[in-house]
Structure formats: C-alpha cells, structure tokens
Specification:
Elements (H helix, E strand, L loop, with lengths): L5 H4 L15 E5 L2 E4 L3 E12 L2 E12 L2 E8 L5 E9 L2 E3 L3 H5 L1 H12 L4 E5 L6 E3 L3
Parallel strand pairs: 6-8
Antiparallel strand pairs: 1-3, 2-3, 3-4, 4-5, 5-6, 6-7, 8-9
C-alpha cells in the first residue's frame, strides 16, 4: 500500500460494498477516522484501466446515523465531486431533494467543500443526470 497523505485523501469518491468491482481495477483503502466524531469516512483510491483508458479516482462513503452518502471524485478534476447514492439498510437509492436538504448530507457537502471541492453534484431521483448542490 502506498503512503496515504491528507492530499491524497482530498480527491474523494464512490465506494461499493465490495470495493471496485471491474476486473481491470485496483483499489487501496484510504479510510479516515471519524471526521470530528460526526462521520465515519470510508474511502478507496481506485484505478480502472483497460485498452485505451485509465481512470483514477477516490470513492467515499460518509456514514452517520444509519445512513451512508456515497460520492466519487476523479483525479483529473480535483474541484468536482459527485454524490451517487444514499444507502439505508444496505439498499442504495438516488438522492431526493429532501436528502439534499438533510443535516447529515449538508455535513458531507461541507466536508468536501472544506477540502477544495467547489463543484458538488448529485444523481437525482427526480431528474435525469446530475444536479448541482446549491452553496
């Protein structure tokens, strides 16, 4: 496992319950201790590769009060992060406007913004594609 620095953790992203699942993937656990006692931050640094492509990203799961928010950020765009899903009782679903307004989601967004993520988006359950999270 390579050395993990705060800088390597600041590019954060999506975690699946079994890690990176593609056969052309390598992942390294870069999880952090509880962030200020509010979240358990579970993070993987991943590289997906195949003929003609290579993606490097971090996947992050913020766990608090029985809910996990799952996000991904690619190394080629350090300023952006995408929330992919909410997980409750092992089931993943897209986020609703109510989720985006919740205190725990706002804390996850604040965590990313405090680490340089200026463009925060989420996959909406009510719209196609990504929606920007208001400041």
């Amino acid at each position: 496992m390579r050395g993990v620095t705060l800088a390597s953790v600041l590019c954060l992203a999506f975690v699946s319950s079994s890690g990176c699942q593609d056969s052309g993937s390598e992942c390294e656990d870069i999880s952090l201790p509880d962030a200020d006692g509010v979240f358990r931050v579970i993070a993987l640094h991943c590289e997906d590769f195949g003929p003609g492509y290579r993606y490097e990203y971090e996947t992050v799961e913020f766990r608090a009060a029985g809910v996990a928010y799952v996000a991904r950020s690619y190394h080629n765009d350090y300023s952006e992060v995408h929330f992919l899903a909410k997980e409750v009782d092992g089931e993943r679903v897209r986020l609703t406007p109510e989720d985006v307004e919740s205190e725990s989601f706002r804390q996850a967004v604040d965590y990313f913004r405090s680490h340089g993520k200026t463009q925060v988006n989420y996959l909406s359950s009510q719209q196609e594609g990504y929606v920007s999270v208001p400041p």
